[in-house]
Amino acid sequence: MKADPKSVLTGVYYIDGDVAAGYGALAAGCKFVAGYPITPSTEAFEAVCHRGPKVGTVFIQMEDELGSISAILGAAWSGAKTMTITSGPGYSLMQDAIGFGAMLETPFVLLNIQRGGPSTGVPTKTGQADMMQSRWGSHGDYEVIAIAPDSPQEMFDYTVKAFNLAEKYRCPVMIMSDECVGHMTEKVVIPEAEKIDVEPRRLFTGKAADYRPFSPGPDLVPKMAKAGEGLNLYITGVVHNENGHPVADEKYKSACIRRLVDKIRINKDKIIELKEEGIDGADVIVVSYGISSRVAVKGVEMARQKGIKVGTLRLVTVWPFPDDRINELAMKTKAFVVPEINYGQVVYDVARCAHGHASVVLVPHGGAGVHNPADVADAIEFAVNQEKPMEGVHEFKTRLEKSVFEGGFKLKE
Amino acid sequence: MNSIIEAINKGIEQSGLDRNKISIPSDIPFEPETVKSLGVDYFQVPRGRAIAFGSGLKLGNPELKIIPVVGDLMTLGGNHFVHGTRRNMELLVLCINSFVYHKVAGKSVPVVTEAFSPYSTFEEPFNFPHLGNSCGAVYTARWTALHTAELAKSIAEALHKRGMSMIEILAPGPSYYRYVTDLDSELLQFYFENSTVKNDEDPRNAAITADGKIIVGKFTDKERATFIDSYNIQHTKILGDAFTPHGSLPEKTGGGNG
User: Fold this and answer.
1) A139 near B CB under 8 A
2) Which of A319, A346, B171, B204 could, after both became Cys, cross-link A146 (CB 3.0–4.6 A)?
3) Which distant-in-sequence residues (6+ apart) come within 8 Å of B189 by Cβ?
4) With contacts defined as CB-CB under 8 Å, which chain B residues touch A233?
5) Residue A40, preceding bond cis, omega within 30 degrees?
6) pLDDT confidence of residue A92
7) Which segments of A218-354 does DSSP mark as H helices, in order?
8) Residue A66 forms contact with B (CB below 8 Å)
C-alpha cells in the first residue's frame, strides 16, 4: 500500500531531526499523537501539532507521560496508527504501559530523543544511555524493535519504517534517537506519496463469532480488531489464552509470553537493518549507532590514515540485536570498537556475540557531548595492536576522562 | 459488583444506545462472561489508566461511547480524572468507591477492608462529586450498591451527555467479600439506614463523613463544550477550510439531550 498523498508533505526541506520524524509520522499515516512535551523532543510534537490538523491527524497534550502512552494505546485499539514522543524522565514514566502495549500486541511507535541521564540529567544535551531501558524497561518478558537513525533524512525515512514494522509485527517500535540527531538541521527530501510504502493494519475480516484476538497467523502475529465493530472484545494485560481470556496456568503463560518474544526473534532477519562499509579484510570493525556513528566516521578516517584496515558496522536496528552477523564477523576480525554515549550498554551484546574470538573495546562517554574522534582512532589503534583477543569488554580511557578524573575513580587507601 | 454490572446493563438498555459502540476500559477485572452479557468491548488496563486509555479510544474513534470504570479511590491516575474533566473529554467515569462503612467501637467509620486495615482507617475519603463538579464535569452523581434503579437511570442519562460525566458508586470491593463474609446484608442495611437522597444538592455539602448521613443523588447536570468541540472550533477558526473537523459536530451549541 502507498502513502496517502494528503498526509505526505512532499518537498525539499532544511529541518531538524525532530521535525523530520514528525513529518515521517504523518506520511506513515499516523492519525493520533499524544504527548507531554519534554526537551529535546518538543520540536517533533510541535511539528505534528502544526501540520497534523491539516492532514487529519489528531493530537492531544496529555497531563503526563503515563497518560500520553495510555491514550495512544487506546487510540490504537479504536483503529488509529499512533505515536508518542518523549525523552529522559518521560521515557521512564512510560515503561509500565510499554509492557501493557507489548502484552496486548498493540502497534505503536515511541520516539525517544535521548538526553543525558539519569534523573533530570542534562535535559538539553545528548545521551545514548536508554538503550537497555528500551529493551528491558518494563517488567516481564517481551521483545521490542528499536531503531537508531543518524541524520534528519533518516529520522523521516525510519519513522515511516517504524510505523510499518509496528503494524507488521504488532509490537512496540522505539525510535531511539538522541539530542544531536534530533536537533541536527540538514537537508531532508520527502518524496511523493507513491514512492512511500505503508503497511496497513492487519485487521480481522471474518465473522464475529470466529474472532480469537490472540490466535497467531503463520508469521506468529495475530490479526487485530478495533473497538466498536460488534466483536465483543475482551482484551486484558493479564496473561491470556487465544480468546484473550485470563488464564493463570503455566502452560498458557508459556504460550502467551513465548509468542511475544518469538514473533520478533524468529522474524529478526526480516527486521534487522545494518549498514556496513569496508568490512572485508578489516582488522578492526567499529560498531556504532545514532550520533556516535557520525562521529566515528572521522575516527575511522584518522585510523585509516595510519594504515589500519578498519570497517564500520552501523546498527540501524539495535533491537533485535544482530547476533549472527556479529558472531560471523568475530571469526574474521581482530577487534570490535564500540563508541557509545554511556558506560557500556550495547557493547555487552557485542561481546556476548563475539564469544571471545575478537577483542571488544568500549569507548565510553558520560553524555552531554559526543566523542572526540581522536579517541575513536586511538581505540582502534590500541585494539589492532593486541596480540590475542582480550577477555570481556576492555574500557578505553578517553582524553576527556583522563583529564577530569585520570580515567577512572579509585578507592582511597 | 454484580449489582453494579446489572445497573450498567440496565443503564445501557435505558439509554437506547448501540452496545457495539460502547467500550469499557477498566482497571477492575470483569469476567469474560460479564462482558459478553453486556455486549460491549472491554479492556482491562494497568491500574489507574482507564481514563487516559479511554480518552485515546474516544479520540481514535469519536463515535464510540466510553465508560471507564475505576477503582482504588482513584489513587492511581487521579490526575487523568482531573484533567480529563477539565478538558471535558466525553467519557462516563464510574468510580467504584470501595470504602466500606462498618461500625468500629460503636462508631461508623470508613474502612478499606479489615484484611488490609486491621485497625480500621483514619483517613477521610474523597468527595468525588465535588472534585468532579469543581473540575467542570457536566454530570455528577453518587449512589450506593443498594440504589441500583437510580444508578441505572443515572447511567442512561449520563450516556447522553456530551462531556465528562462521573458517577460515584459506593460498593464493597471483591476483597471485602473474601475476608468479611457475613456483612453483606448488614452492609446493605447500613446503606439503607445511613443514606439519604438529595438530588441537586450542592456537591460541596456531599462529603462522606464518619458521623453524617451519606448523601446520594444527582448533583450536577449542565452543558459545556467538549474537548473535541473545542479542538474543532479552534482549528476551524485558524485554519478555515484547510481543517476537516474531527468527529461529528454538536447538534446545537453546547449539545446534549441529557
Assistant:
1) no
2) A319
3) none
4) 41-43
5) yes
6) 98
7) 250-265, 268-271, 291-305, 323-330, 346-354
8) yes
In chain A, where does the domain assigned CATH 3.40.50.970 lie?
A: 5-195
With CA atoms as reference, report the closest residue to A334 among A365, A297, A360.
A360
Residue B239 lies in a domain: no
Domain that holds residue B63: 2-223
Q: Using an 8 Å Cβ cutoff, are A80 and A57 in contact?
A: no
Chain B contact set for A226 (CB, 8 A): 61
A275-405 architecture in CATH?
Answer: 3-Layer(aba) Sandwich (3.40)
> Which percentage of chain B shows pLDDT scores above 70?
78
Place of cell 441537586: B200
This model's pTM is above 0.90: yes
In a domain, B21, yes or no: yes
CB A291 within 8 A of CB A180: yes
**pLDDT(B184) > 80:** no
Q: Per the structure, how many domains does chain B have?
A: 1
DSSP character string of B119-133: T---SPPP-HHHHHH
Contact check, Cβ <8 Å, A79/B54: no
As given in the structure block, the three cell numbers for residue B162 are 456530551
Report if residue B66 sits inside a domain: yes
Q: How confident is the model at residue A25 (pLDDT cuts 50, 70, 90)?
A: very high
Query: Does position B111 have pLDDT exceeding 90, yes or no?
Result: no
Q: What is the structure's pLDDT at A383? A: 98
Cell of A34: 499524544
Distance of alpha carbon A240 from alpha carbon A243, whole angstroms: 7
- Tell me the average pLDDT of chain A: 97
In chain B, positions 32-51, which contact chain A (CB-CB < 8 Å)?
32, 35-36, 39-46, 48-49
Residue B144 covered by a domain = yes
- Classify the phi-psi angles of A358: left when phi > 0, otherwise alpha if psi is within -120 to 50, otherwise beta: beta
Residue A376 contacts residue A413 (beta carbons within 8 Å): no
Closest by alpha carbon to B146, among B169, B126, B124, B130? B169
Tell me which of A101-105, A138-142, B73-77, B113-117 is least confident. Answer: B113-117
Class of domain A5-195: alpha beta
Contact criterion met (CB below 8 Å) for A243 and A255: no
What residues of A are in contact with residue B23 (Cβ under 8 Å)? 78, 227-228
Q: Is B79 on the interface with A (CB under 8 A)?
A: yes
* CATH number for the domain that contains residue B21: 3.40.50.970
Q: In chain B, positions 225-244, which contact chain A (CB-CB < 8 Å)?
A: 227, 231, 235, 239, 242-244
Nearest beta carbon to residue B55 from set A71, A96, A238? A71
Using DSSP, state whether A158 is helix, strand or coil. Answer: helix
